[in-house]
Amino acid sequence: MNYTENYRGIKIDVQAPHMEVDETVQAELRSCIDKLTRFANDINEVNLYINKEGQGGTSVSKLGMRVAIPGPDVYADEDGDNWIGMLKSVTDKNIRQLQKLK
Length: 102
Hints:
globular; alpha+beta; 36% strand; 5 strands; Double Stranded RNA Binding Domain
């Protein structure tokens, strides 16, 4: 499922092949963007990549987030099973990168 939204002037683009992104994940993504804007008020776009590789017990879930800002973008990814937890983790990783850029 591809999902695009304009949230507070920030373009959100979610790429999730072969998966549905439910309202809970969308709401958490908006919350994470609110958190990111405290550290960078010039965010142009947030790209979220959600992918599940493998099948059954050997499947691995991957989540990556790219935050587009003037200058170099920041990117972080995480592997795991809990989408919300992975989203919070990549948000925190991107915040640390934004802090280093200041």
